[in-house]
Amino acid sequence: MSYIATTLDNLVHQTAFFNLYWGNYVMIVVACVFLYLAIAKGFEPLLLTPIAFGMLLVNIYPDIMLHAADSANGIGGLLYYFYVLDEWAILPSLIFMGVGAMTDFGPLIANPKSFLLGAAAQFGIFAAYFGAIGMGFNDKAAAAISIIGGADGPTSIFLAGKLGQTTLLGPIAVAAYSYMSLVPIIQPPIMKLMTTEKERKIKMGQLRPVSKLEKILFPIIVTIVVCLILPTTAPLVGMLMLGNLFRESGVVRQLTDTASNALMYIVVILLGTSVGATTSAEAFLNWDTVFIVILGLVAFAFGTAAGVLFGKIMCKLSGGKINPLIGSAGVSAVPMAARVSQKVGAEADPTNFLLMHAMGPNVAGVIGTAVAAGTFMAVFGVF
């Protein structure tokens, strides 16, 4: 009888109820909210679903992220090994290859001025950097946090790992991906506040046709130029351009299909769940996380506003030929930000089609954020 009682007692005490504290339950609720937003509301479910589920798992069973060095048998938790791929910059780089394989760089090539709008939107990064310094973060932590301003999850993870800010990687990545998912909610009010209805109705002329040779040469030239100036950007810019070269060369269709579909989705699963699993209650429920989330929102809003403002300047200089709304697409959320520019423009005039014009700044923003990360790495002497 005592054996049965002891066995039942052991079983009961093995349940999660006896091993969790209130913070874990808070994070479980947050995870469920994220799952609701992803599934019921459709807020970037490809990103938010694995992130939220990783958050759910680690707060029910923290040992799923157990470091191998802390394990009695030298074997870490399942998601720890996924997370190592984040730290080594493998998954963020593969994400960039998939993005390159999925994205048409033609609008950027057809309208090189788009680079300026992409660059303007990066002001959000520097706003976050100085804001983080002002809140007491050290220079490397501030740099890692600042990339949230570009709304670029993979680059945020890449830079945090390279700068040794692994303790902040979870909050940084979750903030970056959350704001990427919430682009359709955050951006429109800022865009409408900063533009007049007349400006939102501006119709832009059709982009010039881009030759196949131009599309093939573009990723090669960008890789050579950018990586010669900032070699530390090679993992991100190089993979982005390699994926695009697969797409545009026309001779490796199997590689293009793999990079943009099967491989991309596998990497999203691994990266999303591992990022979510960094949000244990112990690591996430603190003031640093609150500051990071606030800084990320301010930086993202600042980047959007800077892009629109520069769009207004270009509108004036072009004699009203450029719709300022496309400047908001200069953040790195591809193609979400471009779709938001299209949506807001169509609300002002249903016959207005801005999507392809907005894709130029959007692609430029991806490159710009990677360059910003490389610049920080160069400044701090990190390779």
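Second entry:
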Amino acid sequence: MKKLTSVIIALSLALSAFGLASCGSSADKNQVSVQETTSPTLVDEYGVGFNTDEDGSLTVSGYESNDTDVSIPDEFDGKPVKKIGRSAFKGQNIKTVTMPDGLEEIGDFSFALCSKLELVNIPDGVTKIGKNAFFANFALTELELPESLQLIEINAFNASGLKEITIPENVLNVGEYAFADCVDLEQVQFMGDSTVVAANAFKGCEKVGIIAPKGSPAIDVAKENKLDYVEI
């Protein structure tokens, strides 16, 4: 019951935040339904679908398999895979994902509602984790973020099962509700002293403690929200 309540609250926050980001007003209940990617024009033998971008690289745009273990190739049809597109794996019954070394971006809603997803590697080179990318990933209890990462957008890990996470030094911004309602989250360590953190990034995380450089924005957020913190 507690987990279900968390989902309902988190989904409300996700829709609200998305509406604010998209059009500057409250979202209605139907907005989440439009977060679908375009149909794949290429599909590999394992069911991973792709579309070709203007620069000739590929964006993962869908998944057409019942296999719960996903391996995204470095390239397909002679083209490098650089992005995971909007809603590419949204709601899929997947458990593990191996991402390609050349990946640069994880798109909005890309793994949203993948409630059984428990193991993901995010390779160095990824600079952005999009809105709601790992929303409601209850089984995702641990994750290592790459040093290349710069942006963690709105609701990126909202209502996930993370227990602790380290935010790399190069991250410029942690967006609104990025880790909200992660009810098992106990520790977040910030490696950089200038990462901008939304005041509500950890809303509903009752157990969380913040470790961050002295005087950093993360410490200010911890103080503002009366969270436990350690300055380093």
